[in-house]
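A quick word before the example. In earlier lectures we treated sequence and structure as two separate objects. From today on, think of them as two lines of the same record. Here is LacI family transcriptional regulator written that way.
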Amino acid sequence: MPADGPARRPVIPGAGRMPVPDLAVDRIASAPGAARFPESEEHVGRVTLQTVADKVGVSRMTVSNAFSRPDQLSAQLREKILAAADELGYTGPDPSARALARGATGSVGVLLSNSTATAFSDEVASAFFGAIAHTLNESGLALTLLSSEPSGEVVPARDVAMDGVIVYNCDPASGAREQVVRRGLPIVNVDQASEAGTPGVNVADREGARAAARHIVELGHTKVALVTKSGEPPYGIVDPGEADRHRASDGYASIERLAGWTEALEEAGVTPVVYRLPIDAMGGHGAILAEILEAAPDTTAVLAFSDVIAADIVLEAQDSGIDVPGRLSVVGFDDNPLALRLRPQLTTVRQDVSEKGRLAASMLVDAVRSRRAGGDASPAASVTLPTELVIRGSTGPPFEAPGA
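And the structure line, produced from the sequence above:
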């Protein structure tokens, strides 16, 4: 490597940000001083784009489109080309060379607030990511999950090659989002506070939480506990003053749901007990109800941040001999499939997480394509999807002690 800096990448004159045909990979690979790709198409068993083109009787460009721009071909012709390629053992143009030729990676990232384990352990998150992956796949793009937390010297938001990013419920204080902004990548926010100039997808968290709290009030409950999430201590039971203090690290959904609950309860003259969990809590907290009842023994209803947390509370109640809903009503949020497996089935607030993922991915695909064409990378407006209260068996009138 020269002492005055890294070697420059080969440049295609006049290409700008416009898509470059994959057959330009050959020109780059043969250019003087060009980087050599050990697995480029000219080295894979001597089977090349031209080999496939000759077998099918089409042009090299048509074969290239079958792999990289399937929308340019009929489904029948593409299947014929792919079948011929498979028969010849040809897997397509080398991804590294193709990315260099096109000035694009063919992958977009989803930046998470915490560990990527959430994507695989939570059914709501899995549905969200599944919808994103399906939509991206239809557009010829791959999905990369990124933690907002650095690992050693690697900072995913800064170091991972990608064409755009979905920022999903990410703590603004982490600095990861700022790294993405500095790179100038197209961004779509999900479950984030609205930002001018940046498209986003949210659900009506506050309205859904308000509907859940009103349902509890209409049943006659006045002794209510709220279980929310926070990005920093204190955790457990918090005093009213602390409960009213919102921080960006609490997460957009947490802030909005807590606001919706408290607004509806204040309208009814109800002062709730507030219990906080860490923002990355994913279930398995078996002592929430015990702590709530120790602080407020007359509690008859609990509104929980998610169905996973609500299920923990229902199971803890049943393990303690507390009847749901006879002695305690419980409401969740999300309409996780878990809500239907629970007994009694869980009253909850439904959000369409699959549609949320599909919309976010579609917005990002449009932004990436617009950027490649030299246009505005943020052409879409923000969208707020509705929520719906779903009443099931975990809620009922408040418990009245004998002789009360």
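Notice the following. The longest strand covers residues 224-230. We will return to this example when we discuss secondary structure assignment.
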